[in-house]
Amino acid sequence: MDITNFTSELIAAYKGFLSLLHPFFRSFFNFFFLAVLIFAYATFVWKLHNFISKKNILNLDLNKYNTTAHPVIAKIIAVALYFLEYIIILPFLIFFWFSVFGISLTIFTDLQIGTILVISTVIVAAIRITSYSSEDTAKELAKLLPLNLLAISLLAPGFFEFERILNNINQIPGFLSQIFYYLGFIIALEIILRLFYFIFSMFGSESEEITKKKKPEN
User: Fold this and answer.
1) What single DSSP character describes residue 156?
2) Where are the alpha helices (DSSP H) in 20-89?
3) Which of 1, 186, 203, 216 measures 20 to 30 Å from 85, CA to CA?
C-alpha cells in the first residue's frame, strides 16, 4: 500500500470516527491531534538546535585509534580518520536534521515541495556556515527560524483542519524523491567549510609555533 492510499483510508476512517461524535468532541480531537504535532515539532527543534549549530557535532575523536608509530603512516591515517568523521559521517547527520525539518514543513504548510526544499536547504546552510563563526548565533538561528516558520504556519487559513494535515502527508514521497539533490549540496557545503577550517587551523598552529620560537627566554 502506498502512502497516498494509506492517507486516503486514514482520512475516511477519521471522518467516520468524527461523524459518530458530538461537535464539541470533534473539535476537541482536531485540536488535540494538532497540539500533539506542534509539540513534536517544537520538541524536535528544541532538542536538536544545539546539535545542528555546533561546529564539531560529533567529537568522536577517531584519531585516538591511530596507534602507529611511523610518522608518515600516522599522518595518512589521521587524514583518513578526519575525512571519515567530518566529511562522510557528519554531513549525513546534518541531512537527518534537514529531512525531519523539511518533512515537518511539508505537513504543516501548503507550500510547494520545491519551495519547502529550498527553504530547508537555505536554513540548514545558514546555520552550518554560522556555526563556524559563532556557535551561539548558530544556536539562535537553529531555534528561532524553525519556530518562526511554525508561527507563520499557524496564522495560515485552514491550519487547524486536521484533514488538511493528512492530505499534506501525501506530498512526503515527492519530498523524498527530490531530496538527494539537496543532500549533495549540504555534503559539498560541509566539505568546503571543514576544509577551510582545517587549513586555517593548520596556519594558526604554525603561527603559534613561530611565535613561541621567537619569544625570548626569561
Assistant:
1) S
2) 23-53, 71-83
3) 203
Half-sphere exposure of 24 (CA within 13 A, CB side): 0
213 near 151, Cβ under 8 Å?
no
If we measure between CA atoms, which residue out of 118, 115, 136 comes closest to residue 127?
A: 136
CB atoms under 10 Å from CB of 203, counted, come to 9
Q: What percent of the chain has pLDDT over 90?
A: 2
Cβ–Cβ < 8 Å for 54, 133: no
CB count in 10 Å sphere of residue 205: 10
pLDDT tens per residue, range 38-52: 898 888 888 778 878
Say if residue 201's pLDDT is above 80. Answer: no
Separation between Cα atoms, residue 168 and residue 172, nearest integer Å: 8
Q: CA gyration radius for the chain? A: 23
Torsion 81-82-87-91 (CA) sign: positive
Kind and range of the H or E run holding 13: helix 3-19
- For the stretch 52-93, pLDDT in tens is 888 776 665 545 545 555 566 666 666 666 676 666 777 777
User: How far lies 157's CA from each of 70, 114, 151, in Å?
Assistant: 66, 21, 13
For residues 49 and 137, what is the distance between their CA atoms, to the nearest angstrom?
Answer: 11
Cα dihedral 199/203/205/210 (nearest 10): 170
Q: How many alpha carbons lie under 13 Å from residue 185 in its C-beta half-sphere?
A: 16
CA distances from 57 to 45, 90, 189 (A): 16, 7, 15
